[in-house]
Write a structure and sequence with these properties.
about 325 residues, mainly alpha, Alpha-lytic protease prodomain-like, Alpha-Beta Plaits, 11 helices, about 70% helix, elongated
Length: about 325
């Protein structure tokens, strides 16, 4: 496998994101150029939107590599481990939130521009250039979204999932533009030619209204991760495991604390041991911890599990 193949390998998260970045940068510059040639602000917006998306994908790639390096059994950087001894998982929801917020902001700005253009009587444009651009770009968006979707079945990355949404959103924008430009081209020289100046701002406004809500769910989940909102499904699973373990070993009670930070699952379980419980060796306590870990499942570099046994309930509060 040569260097280029390794860089753009679709079997891992970094390779997928690098491929997406390269394709996005190329077609964003392609779009801005064709937008200027055709006089279409909606195509210029498509290019700018893609460029913002590429910048955020690059940031996602950097963060993904940092998270993997910090979570490795033998970290690449000792200084990284010392400065972030709790890992770098918290960066993922921050980047996802920033990504979604920027995409919404760009689309909202474009919506205001489209409304302003409509109030000013629209704008004239060259539909031939616009149709060529949108047809080529739509094919690329479909190909990239399909390839990333297949790759993410095994990778299971939130970054890749958001990037797939980005390609779908870009494809939806492009498809809408293509339809509008074909209509604009067909009405030239007819009694409906008067609608031509309005086609570009109308379709831009419609596309913006469509894509603005799409990143909202990602922003909401990212904010929940940033504020360490307890995930109900994970809490229910941990409570079920802890309760069964408590009853099996005759323990008094337990306290469970869980949080989600991007791909990381943080779990802390405190078991209250009876005051008259028989003494156990360290090996026996460790075996009990291993049992809890097996019951919790999802063992890997992105699970942070702490299991504590104490006779004092105050240590568990």
């Amino acid at each position: 496998m040569n260097r280029v193949t390794r860089l753009f390998n679709l079997s891992d998260e970094s390779g997928v994101l690098r491929t997406s970045i390269a394709a996005t940068v190329f077609f964003s510059l392609f779009g801005i150029t064709f937008g200027i040639l055709s006089g279409s602000f909606s195509i210029v917006f498509d290019g700018v939107y893609s460029l913002v998306d590429a910048c955020m994908s690059l940031l996602s790639l950097v963060v993904a590599r940092l998270i993997a390096a910090a979570a490795a059994i033998k970290p690449v950087s000792k200084k990284l481990q010392e400065r972030f001894s709790m890992g770098l998982w918290h960066l993922e929801p921050m980047v996802l939130c920033l990504n979604g917020t920027l995409l919404v902001s760009v689309a909202t700005y474009a919506l205001f521009n489209a409304v302003g253009s409509l109030l000013e009587g629209g704008r004239d444009m060259e539909f031939g250039w616009a149709i060529l651009y949108t047809a080529v770009t739509l094919l690329v968006c479909i190909a990239m979204a399909s390839a990333e979707h297949r790759a993410n079945r095994s990778i299971q990355s939130d970054f890749v999932a958001l990037d797939i949404k980005g390609w779908i959103m870009a494809g939806a924008i492009t498809a809408a533009l293509l339809i509008a430009f074909v209509v604009g081209f067909l009405v030239q020289g007819t009694t409906l030619e008067w609608i031509s100046p309005y086609i570009d701002p109308v379709i831009l406004a419609a596309v913006c209204l469509f894509i603005i809500p799409l990143p909202i769910s990602t922003i909401r989940q990212a904010l929940a991760d940033i504020f360490l909102v307890t995930p109900p499904d994970l809490k229910e699973h941990v409570d079920t495991v802890a309760k069964a373990f408590k009853e099996k070993h005759g323990l008094v009670s337990y306290r469970a604390y869980v949080a989600r930070m991007g791909r990381c699952r943080e779990i802390e379980i405190y078991f209250i041991v009876p005051a008259d419980a028989p003494a156990r060796t360290i090996a026996e306590w460790d075996a009990m911890r291993d049992e809890v870990g097996e019951l919790i499942g999802d063992k890997g570099p992105d699970r942070w599990l702490t299991v504590v046994f104490t006779g004092d309930p105050e240590w568990a509060e």
